[in-house]
From TrEMBL:
InterPro entries: Lipoprotein_NlpA, TAT_signal
Recorded family membership: Belongs to the nlpA lipoprotein family.
Protein's name in the database: Lipoprotein
Organism from which the protein derives: Methylobacterium oryzae CBMB20
Signal in keyword set: yes
Pfam families reported in the protein's UniProt record: Lipoprotein_9 (PF03180)
PANTHER family documented for this protein: D-METHIONINE-BINDING LIPOPROTEIN METQ, METHIONINE-BINDING LIPOPROTEIN METQ
Signal peptide start and end residues: 1-23
Length: 266
């Protein structure tokens, strides 16, 4: 067993009380979603760099990873894509550093009522993320599959529900907290679910989704984020190199079978 505890589970009811780690030999505290982020970090720690003092803090409840990073309760986080990060920075009035783009979790369209997009009933409910960046991402995926039309075909990260110009099946849209989207499948005609939450709910995106985002040109790669002051920290730089290595790319392909896609091509 390596010297440092690899994974620490925290809920919103439990506050962090660790002092900020500044020394290069101190454990590197990385806040991460359980799947796949913490699993990828565990692979790095156990298989590639057992000497790296890494402590993974798995998030749940109402803990906000970017606030923990801002407040010095963590040294880095690994759970988000850049559009979400930029919206958080704007709301918080801070600027963070992106040090590595690791993988894409393709957003998917899921249904328990339809076996194909052609079978999705008219007048049904479409459940979307209530995160601004993921709302636009979901709308773009619906448009890409011919279910709606937006005012601008390339609206991308800026699309909102107000941009829905054509809705031929008269869908009703509801916005839900991302972790709750899998539960909406019992009631919704379609749920637009982030890859990590689909995996946590026992879904296999490459098998179960009616449609998935394309990886090519996808702006939603999940990234390793730290503060500007820690961006050149040797521990951060080493972790960034490991997360973008061929070994991690091979692990992602093998474990997630197309449900998570490494940014690295080889």
């Amino acid at each position: 067993m390596p010297q440092y505890s690899r994974r620490l589970f925290l809920s919103g009811a439990l506050a962090l009380s660790m002092a900020p780690a500044r020394a290069a030999t101190a454990p590197l505290r990385v806040v991460a979603s359980s799947v796949p982020h913490a699993e990828i970090l565990e692979f790095v720690a156990d298989k590639l760099a057992p000497d790296l003092p890494l402590k993974t803090i798995e998030i749940s409840g109402d803990l906000r990873p970017n606030a923990l990073l801002r407040d010095g309760d963590a040294d880095a986080n690994f759970f988000q894509h850049v559009p979400f990060l930029r919206s958080e920075e704007a709301a918080m009035g801070v600027r963070f550093a992106v040090v590595a783009a690791v993988h894409i979790e393709p957003l998917g369209l899921y249904s328990r009522r339809a076996k194909s997009l052609a079978d999705v009933p008219a007048g049904g409910t479409v459940a979307l993320s209530n995160s601004v960046s993921n709302t636009s991402r979901g709308l773009s995926l619906l448009q890409a599959n011919g279910l709606i039309r937006l005012r601008a075909k390339d609206a991308g990260v800026n699309a909102t529900l107000d941009d829905v110009l054509e809705n031929p099946k008269n869908f009703r849209f509801v916005e839900i907290a991302p972790p709750q989207l899998p539960r909406s499948l019992d009631d919704a005609a379609i749920a637009v679910i982030n890859g990590n939450y689909a995996l946590e709910a026992g879904l296999e995106p490459a098998r179960d989704a009616l449609a998935l985002e394309r990886a090519e040109g996808n702006p939603y790669a999940n990234v390793l984020v730290t503060t500007e002051g820690l961006a050149k920290d040797p521990r951060i730089q080493r972790l960034a190199t490991l997360l973008t290595s061929a070994e991690v790319a091979a692990f992602i392909r093998s474990r997630y079978r197309g449900s998570v896609i490494p940014v690295r091509n080889s």
